[in-house]
Amino acid sequence: MPRSPQSRSATPTLLPHATDSRIDVGLPAPLGVRIYGQRRAGNGLVVPLIVHLHGGAFVSGSLDSGATVARLLADAGAVVVSVDYPLAPANPFPAAVDAAYAALQWAYRKRAKLAGQGARVFVAGEEAGANLTAAAALMARDRHLPPLAGQILISPMLDPCLGTASLRRSNQGPADCPLAAGWCQYLREPAAAEHPYAIPGRSMRLAGLPPTLLLTADDDPLRDEALAYAGRLNEANVPVSASVLPGPTGWPAALQAVAGAEGPWIEEAGTRLAAFLAQACHREATDPEPNDFPLRKGC
Q: Pfam families given for it (predicted)?
């Protein structure tokens, strides 16, 4: 479950090969980032560079709670820039989206230094961070910068209505639900609920987005909205690979475990991530056929 609003770790625990820093991206305050991995010089390999956005229902989360997914991405072979974006309610939409996009621009400008010459840039996130990931990808498409090699959505939080069968099955819903509370704090202005960058799942125009990996799970309360978005991406001819991992996973809470997560889903998710990054980084320059990334259910 998300922690209390504006939660931050006072003494971050750094994992091996991870360093904390602050970056100036033109916002009122610098953004905290944690960088995992390192560039591989002289071996001729293309190293992916991923901007990662943690979960927390828009109102909680930190670099520590995002470490589980950030480490999965790094273990899949990427250099990862995990971003400590501003939280609601103090910073409602569009503050987090603006920060996500600014961090993405910064990473693109610094890609050679961070991940080596020729690094492909991705954006990834879990739960609310996956919402911000989808929004940042829409912004990059609309503003024609930066060019993205792909987006990775893990247990994405995309539908503020909270009326799907998977949510009802998990005994979560509008009443006393942390997800509902997060949406209310994030969408403080009524007009925000109509903005595609606030609710990418309702965007009327999805064509032109980068290849997408979408991971959900049998016991994920957000499964149905994730698969609905994957279907809409597929209809828009966006190359998409959607996998439903077998439960139990404990998602989305398990994705934000500060002490790390355990379970067979970790290996399965890691395999999917590594395969997606490898394929996306070695794609031909021409646009692929949509069926290059078929919808599929995990075994």
A: Abhydrolase_3 (PF07859)
